[in-house]
Structure formats: structure tokens, C-alpha cells
Amino acid sequence: MQKIPALILMLALCCFASRGMILYAQEDSPYKETIPGDNDSDDDPESDFFAFIPDLYTKGDQTITISLGTIFPTIFLNNGKEITHNINPPVGGLLSFAYSYFLGPHLFLGGEVGFATAYTLGESALFIIPIGFRAGWQFVFWRFEFPLYATIGIAPQRYLDLGYFGMYLKAALSAYYRFHPKWSAGIIVDWSWYPQWPMKDGKRIPEKDIEGNFIGVILSARYHF
Predict the structure, then answer these.
(1) How far is 151 from 187, CA to CA, in rounded Å?
(2) What is the H or E stretch that residue 42 is in?
């Protein structure tokens, strides 16, 4: 009969110990319930960038682009005949700002404004301010984005005490890497055509026409919103 109280005591101790283990496991469980509004790292889209995959663009997506690079002279024409230019390569630099608005996953429209300077062999500077409208098509592969676009606009120019107000055309290929949900960085290679068609008394002077062609190699950063 003395064994019965001892057996009851042992069962009570085992029950208490198992209950304590269960409570301890609940306190340290890795499957903690997420409380709405709690500052959990999983709620931060930047907490694990390696899991970030950019979505396809939708209508209304926008970008602002800041670009800095250099331009090189290629072919210069005088009244349709190739001439030797006196611009010293590399000719100087280019700084530009651009805005793009996406009409869908690929098509976008926008505008740009820039400042370019080119130096001649005599160390005189040519200044160009291109302001244009652009339209383009963008391909996306994972975090890589490849915008292709064309631009048309006006380009006020200044050389020594001479000024010219003309137009310009540009075609560009670019590649960006989306290293952040809001930012991407890349490179642009573009071709620009700057014609000068002088006039006198309201008439063209073809023998003085000059058409300058430049290749640009530009580093660029885009802000996405």
C-alpha cells in the first residue's frame, strides 16, 4: 500500500515537468505569429533585396534619368560632302536630365534637356543645349532593362560670338541594372545629328550648310516611381 502514494507522486512530477517543457517550447517557437502593424523585417521590401524581382511596367510608371558622359565627333558634312572637322576628340562632356512615362509594359514617352560642350583644336568651346521629346520601347529581363528610344528637338548652340538655333535628332541604345527597387544604373550609347542650315534674307545658303554627327558614351542612373 505504501507504493501507491509514491506512484501518484511520480505521476504528478512527470505531468508538471511535461507542462513546463510545453510552455518553454511555446515561448521559443520559431513560428511566431505576425502581429499586424508590428515592425517585422518581412514587411520591409528592402530587407531582402535578393528576393526582389521587378514587376513588369504598367501604365503610369515613371522614371527620372540623370546622365553624365562624353561625346565624340564622327562624320561632318558641308553641303552633302564630307569635311574634316577641327574638333579635338574626346570633345568634352554631356550632362542631361530626362523624364519617361510608361503607357504599358514596354512603350514610353518623355522629354529631355541637356548641356553639351565640345572643344576645337584651337581650344575654343562649342556649347549646345539640346531640348527634346523622346519615344521608346523597353525590353526587360530579370533585373536588366534595355530601353531603346529616339529623340527630336531643338538645340540652341553657341561658338565664340556666333549663335545658332536649330534642331537635332538622336537615336539611343541603353542597358540598366535594377540594383534597388527605386534605382537602376547603366550605360547609354547614342548617335546625335546636329544640322546647321544658315539663312540670309529668309533664304537658305546651301554652300554653308554643316551637319555634325556625334557618338555619345554616357553613364546613367534612373529613379523609378
Answers:
(1) 17
(2) none
Q: Compute the residue count for the chain.
A: 225
Cis status, amide bond into 45, omega within 30 of 0: no
- Residue 172 is placed in which grid cell? 539611343
DSSP for 43-62 reads G-TTTTGGG--PPPP-TT-E
Whether the pTM exceeds 0.85: the reply is: no
d(CA 154, CA 204): 18
Q: How far apart are the first and last CA of the chain?
A: 82
CATH for 50-224 is 2.40.160.20
> In the chain, where are the structural domains located?
50-224
Q: Is 8 strand, coil or helix?
A: helix
Neighbours of 82 (CB within 10 A): 10
Give the bridge partners for 123, in sequence order: none
Whole-angstrom distance, CA of residue 129 vs CA of residue 69: 15
Specify the pLDDT at position 10. 53
User: What percent of the chain shows pLDDT beyond 70?
Assistant: 73
